[in-house]
Amino acid sequence: ELFQTELLSALKIVQRGDLPLRDLVGAFAGEIGQTQFLPSSYIKYGVDYDGNGHVDLRHSVPDVLASTANLLKVNGWKAGAPYGEGTPNFEGALREWNHSELYRKTIVLMAQQLGGR
Length: 117
Hints:
By secondary structure, the protein is an all-alpha fold. It has helices spanning about 5-15, 40-45, 60-75, 90-95, 100-115.
């Protein structure tokens, strides 16, 4: 029952032509694509930024980046604001992307190593 919504969303991704069934490969919990969206998030936040008529979070870097930015924006990301542990960006927008605190801490660490705040 827990993953019924995700299964239906995955089938919708195939039905609307975003990914062929053979490319509908996910991680152990069903996440798809370069930034690991659950199928329901793929449907909700996916952006066809390259303009080819399909949201492709496995192969299209423009779609991946635009979709991830869309997820963060819709969930309250404040540009220029801190995003470390305990901040609204960490507890809000990043949590919507991934509920795992360790995952979010890893994102923050990588951003800091790449020159973020």
